[in-house]
Amino acid sequence: MDGAHDMGGVWSGEVRPEPNEPPFHAEWERRAFALRLAMAMPGGWNIDMSRFAREDRPPQDYLGKSYYEIWLAGLERLMLARNLVTPDEIEAGKPLHPAKPVARTLTPEGVAGMLHRGGPTERKATSPALFAARDQVRAKMINPPTHTRLPHYVRGHVGTIERVIGCHVFPDSNAIGGGENPQWLYTVTFDGRELWGEDGDPGLKVSVDAWEPYLERA
Amino acid sequence: MTDHDHHHHDHDHSELSDTELRVRALETILTEKGYVDPAALDLLIETYETKVGPRNGARVVAKAWSDPAYRARLLADATPAIAELGYAGRQGEHIVALENTRSLHNMVVCTLCSCYPWPVLGLPPVWYKSAPYRSKAVKDPRGVLKDFGFELPQGTEIRVWDSTAEIRYLVLPLRPERTEGWSEERLAELVTRDSMIGTGLPKQPHEIA
Questions:
Q1: Which among A39, A169, A207 has the least Cβ separation from residue B36?
Q2: Measured by CB atoms within 10 angstroms of the end CB, which terminus of chain B is less buried, N or C?
Q3: Residue A149: which of B125, B115, B176, B100 has the closest Cα?
Q4: Same domain for B138 and B204
Q5: Is A170 in contact with A213 (CB distance < 8 Å)?
C-alpha cells in the first residue's frame, strides 16, 4: 500500500545518531518488544501480516508514533482482529472475557530455539526464473491497496538484475492471508541518476530486492 | 530484568505515561489469559540486551580480516559462514556480506521499515529506523555520511542496499592500516556497529591504544 512508511527519497532532514545508544530507551519499550515477539506464536500471524498491521494507518498516525508505539499499535490490531483481546479489555486494562484457546505459547525453554530457527523464507522453486543476471528490467508501476515491498521510488524505473537470489515467500500474498505463493527474488540495481534525475549523484547505485511479479523486461 | 522498579531511572518524569500504562495493562491481560509467560518475555529482552549485539558482527569482520579462506566463504555465502561463529536465526536467516574497497563504499538501509541483521548487529538504533535516514540514504548517502561526520574520498562509488525482502546485509569494512599481525580479538575492537552498516568507518589503531 502507499503510505507514510514508504520513505525512500521523500525527505532530507539531518540524521542524528545517539552516542552509546542502548537497545531500549524505556521499560515499556522492552516489554512491548518482547510481547510482540512472544505473541506471534499464540497469534499465528506471519511477519508480512505484522508489517501490514504496522504500516496500514494514516500518515499522521504513523509519523506521530515512535517506533515501539507503532509496534504496539500493530500488535493490538493483530490481536483484536483474532479476538484474542477485545476493545473493552484494552479500554479497561484488564481481562474481562475468557481466553481464546491457542495452539501454542512461548515458554522460557522455547525462547532460544524460536530465535535460532527464525523464519527462513526461501522455498523450492516450481518454475524457472524469468530473469538472469545482467538482464535489464523495469520495476512495474503498481500501487496496490494492500501490502507490497516494492518501494515507490523505484517504480517505473529501469535497473539491472544483479543477482538471482532464489525463490522466496511473496509478501504481497502472505500479508493478506493469501498463502506463501513463493516467487523468484532478485537484487535489482539502479543508477542514482535513473532514480533521481540528472542532478543525482553520478557515483551512486541503489539496489532493492524485488520479487518477479514486480518486474518486467525492459 | 524482572524488576520493573529497577528501571525507573530510564524516565525523566515521575508519573507513568499513557503508553507505559497501556503496555503494563496489556501484559497483564495477555499473561492472565495464558497467552504469554512473563519469564519468556524477560528472556527475550535479556537476549537482545546482553547476548546479541554488534560485538557478534565485529567477530565476523575481524575473522574475515585475519583469515583469507574465511573471508572468501563469507563473501560467497555469508549465512553459513556467520553460523560457523554461532550467530544465526531471527532476522538473519539469509545474510549477504558486502565488501568495501578503496573505490567502493556500501551502505545498508530499510526504507520501508527497519530490516536489520539482528544476529550480528542486535536491534537497530533509533536513527536507523528514523524518517531522515530511511529517506535520505537512497538519495543522498554522502549527505548521510556528513551527518555522521565523515566524507569519502572523491571518486568513491557508493552502493546503497535497500533491505526490501528477507535478505539482510552486513558491510565488511576495509581493514585499517598498521594492524599487521594483530589478533582477531584486538582487530574486533576496531570494528564499530556503524562501520558494518556503512554509516561509519572502523576505528584507527591509535583510537584504542
A1: A39
A2: C
A3: B115
A4: yes
A5: yes
What is the complex's ipTM, to 2 decimals? 0.97
Alpha carbons A74 and A68: distance in angstroms, whole number? 10
Q: Do A108 and B40 touch (CB under 8 A)?
A: yes
In a domain, residue B7? The reply is no
Question: Which one of A16, A90, A115, A149 would you mutate to disrupt binding with B, by most B Cβ within 10 Å of its Cβ?
Answer: A115
Q: What is the pLDDT of residue B9?
A: 46
Q: Is residue B40 domain-shared with residue B95, that is, in the same domain?
A: no
- Extract the C-alpha cell encoding A31: 516489554
Tell whether B112 is covered by a domain. Answer: yes
B122: its cell numbers? 542486535
Q: Is A168 on the interface with B (CB under 8 A)?
A: yes
* Number of domains within chain B: 2
> b vs e for B16-39, b when ≥16 Cβ sit within 10 Å of the residue's Cβ?
eeebbebbbbbbebbeebebbbbe
B23 and B108 share one domain: no
Chain B interface, best mutation among A27, A29, A51, A214, by max B CB count within 10 A: A27
Residues of A in contact with B53 (CB under 8 A): 23
Rounded to the nearest 10 degrees, the angle between the axes of helix B54-66 and helix B68-76 is 120
> pLDDT, tens digit, for every residue of B20-52?
999 999 999 999 999 999 999 999 999 999 999
Can you give the residue range of the structural domain that contains B25?
16-50
* B170 close to B120: Cβ distance less than 8 angstroms: yes
